Each structure stands twice: as C-alpha cells, then as structure tokens.
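sanity check this chain:
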Amino acid sequence: MMSNSNGNLRVDLKLIADMVAPGSRVLDVGCGDGSLLAWLGKHKGVDGRGIELSMAGVTAAVSHGLSVIQGDADTDLHDYPAGAFDYVVLSQTLQATYAPKTVLNSMLRIGRHAIVSFPNFGHWRVRWDMLIKGRMPVTDTLVYDWYETPNIHFCTILDFLALCSDLGVRVERAIPLDHDGQVMTCPGGRFAANFFAAQGLFLLSRG
C-alpha cells in the first residue's frame, strides 16, 4: 500500500527512512509498490530509483510517478556503476536471494551505504516450533509454508553479522525489531537480539 496523505509508512520502513540523509541518491531493491521511495521523495527530497521483480509492483510504482524498473537483485545489480548511489536498500528480501553474499557485495559497490532488513531465523518462536512441533515454523515474519515460501536462505542475526565480518563490512547501526517492526531493547547485546528479535535492521558501509 502506498503512503497515505499523512505521509505514514509501515513502522520498519519509517526506521529505514530515518537512516537516509535528505537529498541523497537511493536505490530500493525489491521496492514493491514504491511506498518507501514515495515517502523519501516527498519528505526528504531524495533522488530515488527502484528495482522490483513483480510486474504488479512495478506497475503500481510507475503509476504513482516513481522511477522503478523490473529487475532481480541476483542478476541486475552488476549493471549499476560503482558509487552510483548514497544508499542501497534491501528490505525483507535478502533471504529470498540466491546469492546473498554477492548481493550484499554489489550493494556496497554501487552505494556508499547499504540498509538491510530480514526476518531472524534465530528468534525463540522459530526455535520453539522446530523443537516442539518438529516442523518448519510459520510466524508473523515467516508467513509461508515450507512448500511455497520464496525464502531460500534463512539466516539469524548472528549469521548476518558473521557475513559482514567476513566481507569487511562496517555495521554502523544494528536495530532489533519485534514482529510489528517496532524497535526492541535487548540488554544482552547481539546474543540477546539473536534470541528475542523477530527481525534485524542494519545500516552498513565498507570497512
């Protein structure tokens, strides 16, 4: 759903928007109907572009005057020159890519910063369902049954942080989120976030 007349965004997208500097160049990968781009253009004056796999999403975004093309994070990011954007956003999509490591590298090649969010497979509810039910979990953030899910590379917050370390990526901000996208307080640091957070949101740059 596009942003309404009051400029409201889904909570997690608003957190992403808060990370973006006014007037910057933004590429939203997997942008859906362009809600984030529309908000950023209206409220922060960004030069926004989008890539979206579904034609329905592209059509919706373009109908609202947004610069969005059909494309795939796994195959099309290499077409963009290095340093073309200030921020490259990948919201709730990393786990659905075939090559997350390559995608993350590409994001930080073409953007000075990357903003990434994903469902945390280390969340206690996921562990509980696996332990007690012995079945792949279905939760508020992992909403598909195993046989129809687009998610092919589940990871935990600790897995993602390990990947960032392996790639020499600097984690500028790490925000644990609950099922509704609200910020959580996790006094135990990354290990507590790995257990209690339903989602993770990260602002990244090259180390």
Observations:
- The chain has one domain: 11-206.
- Confidence is low (pLDDT under 50) at residues 1-6.
- The first strand starts at residue 25 and ends at 29.
- The CA atoms of residues 55 and 122 lie 32 Å apart.
